[in-house]
Every structure is written in C-alpha cells, then in structure tokens.
Specification:
By secondary structure, this protein is an alpha+beta fold. It has 10 helices and 10 strands. Helix 1 packs parallel to helix 2, helix 2 runs antiparallel to helix 3 and helix 7 crosses helix 8. The strands form 2 sheets. Strands 1, 2, 3, 4, 5 and 6 form a 6-stranded mixed beta sheet that branches. It has a 4-stranded antiparallel beta sheet with strand order 8-9-7-10, with helices on one face. The structure holds cytidine-5'-monophosphate. The site of cytidine-5'-monophosphate (C5P) has 11 residues, from strand 2 and helix 5.
C-alpha cells in the first residue's frame, strides 16, 4: 500500500419520525423510523502509512470511552488484513448526546473511506454487517438521504428524497443518555396496541408519494418521557411550532430538536428569536448530495 491522506465530511441525521415498538430478546428495541441526513457535519482527516498496525486519534474535544472511529478503523484493518498505521484528526461539530448520530456518522465515514485509502474494497453488504456490529445507526449512514429504518434501525429501505424546506436545529445544553431514554419508555415484549398503519408509516407513505401532508403525522415516541424530565425541551418545541415549523420534533432520543420551515426568512426569524438554546440552520441532504459532498478539501471547507 501507498501512504495517503484524505479529508471527509461526516454528516448528521435527524429522525423525521420515530416510533419505539417493543423490547427484543437481544435487549434492543424494534423501531419504525424515517432517517434523514442533514448538512451539519464533522470533518475527519485520515492519514495512512505502511507499517505496524496502529490507530491514533486526535480531536479538539475529549470523547469518552473508546471512540467509534477507532473501532471502525480496527474493524477495517482486520477485514482487509492490511498492516498500516492510521491517524485521524477529528473536528467535532455535531454535538454529542443530541440524537444527531454524531458518533455513528464518524464511524460510517471511516468504513466508507478507509478501505480505498488502504488500496482495498469492502463490498457494501459486508460494510453493513460491520456497521451493524458497531452501532444501530451506522448502516443508515452507509446509505444516507431519506430512508425508513425498521428492526433495530438497521433494516433500511431507501426512500425518495424528502422535499426541501429550511431546517433549524436547536441544541439545548442537555445531554440525554440513549439507553436511559429507551429504559424510561418501559416497553414490553409485545408491541403497544395501535392503528394498523402507524403514524410513521402514514408519514412514510405520504412522503414517498410526494404528498406534503407527511409533515402532519411525524412523531417521536421519546418526547413525552424526555420532556417530562427536561421541560425546557417542550417549550423549545412549542417555540419552533409557533414560529411556523412543521414538523417540529425532537430527534432520536434527544436532546436536539429540529424544525422544518417553508420559507428561509421564517427560519431565520425563528433562529433570531430562540435564544434559550443554540440555533443552527441546516438543509436536508439528498442521497446524491450526501455522496457528493462527502469528500472535503484538506481544510474541510
Ligand atoms: O446500537 P447503539 O450502540 O447505538 O445503541 C445504544 C443503546 O441504545 C443500546 O445499548 C440500547 O440500550 C439502546 N437501543 C435500543 N434499541 C435500538 C437501538 C438502541 O434499545 N433499536
């Protein structure tokens, strides 16, 4: 193999809709969700050189536990059998513990970029298996765009791109632990009784048909439990709604919230008014944009 360097963008996701059905024998929960990639991203510099196998990471932020980037890189080295030293430089822009998939997208970016740098290829179905073993959101980031997620969230069905809109994230200074959020839902082994076609399925069907009414049936099952512990989040969602966002929802298990606005001026007006949390404008990324914008210039801009 040749020495090489590459800079990639790792984009965040929101869950346009998210239902948690029931507890599975493996300890995870069955979900129904609609994932969507957005323009907010981390920047990862990757440098590889031949030599003894080593993986190092430098970052502007302290990351607790063993970083998913390092675990993804070790998995790629094991899969390809290449002996190389891999160094990462992570510029973290996606807040951690926000429900935006920050750790998962970094890992997926490594799974997508590193094999090529090492002069190897790993077929997508195998990358999906490796991603699933590392975390439930990672397979989605191997696909990007708009996609339905079932099972653990790892069974993916790519969907037509969700129509535009002007996005606003609000990032309150609240950290929600994902395992705690799942536990607080207290789901049993049987799915809760509900309509034959769930709200997320209704939203997905409308979205796929290009019917703008999809925004009206988006839900997030974590909201009531998380809002009960952090009333600020309910207040922020109301502020997004009264500023004209539809949908306005929490993403994942929180604590970030998003709103989609029909006009840019409306979005910018809301961003100026919401001061109790950091507002970050964003755009939805189609699957094609997700692929094309992944490779950044060495400065990451
Ligand atoms: O797969 P990941 O490491 O992202 O999951 C973090 C935690 O979230 C799991 O350990 C589990 O407690 C919970 N989880 C779940 N059901 C899912 C996804 C995650 O219970 N479908």
């Amino acid at each position: 193999m040749q020495p090489g360097v590459l800079t990639v963008r790792a984009f965040a996701k929101i869950n346009l809709s998210l239902e948690v059905l029931n507890k599975r024998p493996d300890g995870f929960h069955n979900l129904r969700t609609i994932f969507q990639t957005i323009s907010l991203h981390d920047v990862i510099g990757i440098a590889v050189s031949p030599g003894e196998q080593a993986v190092t990471l430098e970052s502007d932020l302290e990351i607790p536990g063993e970083n998913l980037i390092v675990r993804a890189a070790r998995a790629v080295l094991a899969e390809t059998g290449v002996s190389a030293s891999v160094h990462f430089r992570l510029e973290k822009r996606i807040p951690m513990g926000g429900g935006l998939g920050g750790g998962s997208t970094d890992a997926a970016a490594v799974l997508l970029a590193l094999p090529g740098l090492l002069g190897c290829a790993i077929p997508l179905p195998r990358l999906m298996e490796i991603g699933t073993a590392l975390g439930s959101d990672i397979p989605f980031f191997l696909v990007g765009g708009t996609a339905a997620g079932l099972g653990r969230g790892t069974e993916l069905y790519p969907m037509p791109d969700a129509a535009g809109g002007f996005g606003l994230l609000v990032l309150p200074d609240v950290h929600v632990s994902t395992p705690d959020a799942f536990r607080s839902l207290n789901r049993g082994e049987a799915p809760p009784p509900g309509p034959q076609v769930s709200l997320t399925e209704q939203a997905g069907l409308a979205l796929a048909a290009g019917d703008p009414s999809w925004v009206g049936t988006c839900v997030n099952d974590f909201e009531s439990a998380v809002f009960a512990r952090h009333p600020l989040l309910a207040d922020l969602r109301s502020q997004l709604e009264s500023a004209g966002a539809s949908p306005a929802r929490m993403t994942g298990s929180g604590a970030a919230l998003f709103g989609l606005f029909p006009a840019e001026a409306q979005r910018d007006h809301a961003a100026a008014r919401i001061t109790a949390a950091r507002p970050v404008p964003f755009e939805l990324l189609t699957r094609q944009e997700y692929r094309q914008r992944r490779f950044a210039s060495p400065t990451g801009q």
